[in-house]
Fold:
Amino acid sequence: MNIIIPMKRVPDTAIQVNVKDGRVALEEVETWVINPYDEYAIEEALRLIERLGEGKITIVTIGPEAAQETIRKALAMGAHEAYHLLDDAFEHLDALGRARVLAAAIEKIGEYDLIWPGFKGVDYDEGQTGVMLAEFLGLPHVSTAITVEEIEDGHAVAKIEAEGGYQHVRVPLPAVITQTQGPNEPRYPTLRGIMGAKKKPLTVWNADDLGLDPDELEPVVELLHVERPPARKAGRILEGEPAEVARELVRILHEEAKVI
Amino acid sequence: MADLALVVAEQQDGKLKKITYEMLTAARQVADELDTEVGVIVLGDGLDADALAADLGARGADVVFVGDDPALGSYAAEAYSTVIQRLVEDEEPTLVLFGMTPMGRDLAPCVAAKVNGGLASDITGLRVEDGELVITRPIFSGQAIATVRVKRPPVLATVRPNTWSAAQPAGDDEADVETLDVDDLPENAVHVLSVEAKESERPELTEASIIVAGGRGLQGPENFHLIEELADLLGAAVGTTRAVVDAGWRPYEEQVGQTGKTVSPQLYIAIGISGAIQHVSGMRTSRYIVAINKDPEAPIFKIADYGIVGDLFKVVPELIQAVKEYKAANQ
Ligand SMILES: Cc1cc2nc3c(=O)[nH]c(=O)nc-3n(C[C@H](O)[C@H](O)[C@H](O)COP(=O)(O)OP(=O)(O)OC[C@H]3O[C@@H](n4cnc5c(N)ncnc54)[C@H](O)[C@@H]3O)c2cc1C
Ligand SMILES: Nc1ncnc2c1ncn2[C@@H]1O[C@H](COP(=O)(O)O)[C@@H](O)[C@H]1O
Structure:
């Protein structure tokens, strides 16, 4: 069972990002983490291969030099091997570009049964790359899986989030399955995992290695500028006995806010 | 045919969903400036094209593209994206809108890859500047707002629910009906084995105009009847935090926040929720936020329009009572 997990690093989700000069001030971010959905995918993939008794997890990341640290974290969690796609031409990709670069790398890696990206990056909140990747690779896809429940006769059975509840779906492999929040808290790397990660294979490829022409990677979606969201106006604290404030709140919601 | 702004409808049992009318409003708002007609694509099985043309026409659509086939009976990425790809290649629309819904977030990137088009996700603003479409969308879980441009047509976008008002019927214009090519649709590789439907009659979180959300302050799953009762009185959806989901008190589908749902109701009532950044990022664009928390320093008060500092076990029963009285008085 060869599982490939496209993984990106994002700023620590517990910190507020800053906006400066019409851009998100990413240079100010000190702590970067594995994109939470990718981390859930790694956790579910680790559990899947533990259940199957065999399998290999390969991480593929497009990112700057510093992304290597995040890649090592994924290896420390238990992934087996990683590819770091590093090139100046990869710096300002849109989702189409990311999917193209990932597709080229995955085709070059060659052996895969299941490609398991997160359903969205919690940086630019696009949630596009996984499905586009499936299209470029000519593979079927399933979106927003909670987990992959079973592998049987060359198919995966996944539990997915769907309109109004959950579905259990069966998809022939190879396929792309995007991960939403899973049922299991992603594991922390153990000390042994961290030591072991240093010896795991990490290959760096650039655009040339992937046979990609930077001109084809020009973004179609262009980021013009970024600003802070409008501040919410100061709120009002209602004071008094519970029965009083409850009535006052209902009155305000009806008469002033007109939402009930 | 004139240039087109397209809306990819969502329907269930032939009935159009609210998001369709919201997208129609968004498309209509830019159509005149862009000098385009507004078209709506409706895909399904056994659709009533005339009824759709009357309904959508009255709400401002010029043309309805109907794709009717058993293969389109329920959403299937391959079949749906193929029909839309054909239409996009034939008509070369300026703009194509999808809902930021379970269907739209799967379908839109699929179509984008097929037509090699730029897609802006989860948009909350759309305007025309110097004859060009300019889009705004929240990024970093709403911590910043990005302005983006898609450099060449078609401009593809998924639209955040509850952001535009639903187009209302006005007059009795009928839209033209065009029948879509549904020949030789690819078979869907993905098979649905079973469905675990949500039992409740409550509205979908992402579509609800009111959400009552309970956090760890409820102290246990047995106390969520307070949240449910208030929600049902208000016709609201129930939301919760990841702390509660991780504790196994409530299902993940109710989680609001960075790794849960992004919601923007008219009213969000946060009860026993601290207001961690990852929670707030999923609900900060709600029109009105009410917070009930015993800790006056809880960060949720920083974004609340109305706050009640107090013990939820005292306040919420009174609130339920007050809503009942209000409803009785306003029958
Ligand atoms: C990568 C990542 C992603 C995350 N994604 C999400 C997400 O999508 N959604 C999310 O919600 N969280 C998310 N979190 C978790 C988040 O950081 C918080 O831990 C969580 O939101 C806290 O939930 P809570 O407010 O229910 O609990 P707490 O923070 O424990 O707050 C409980 C509140 O209840 C109040 N309270 C207690 N008793 C009473 C009472 N009797 N009456 C009134 N008030 C009372 C307390 O004062 C307190 O403010 C994420 C975390 C990480 C690291
Ligand atoms: N730079 C990247 N490197 C590797 N994988 C990525 C990258 N960007 C996005 N992905 C994958 O695509 C998913 C969706 O991301 P996005 O479309 O950027 O929201 C992520 O969860 C990752 O699995």
Observations:
- Chain A touches chain B through 83 residues (CB under 8 Å).
- Chain A has one domain: 2-217.
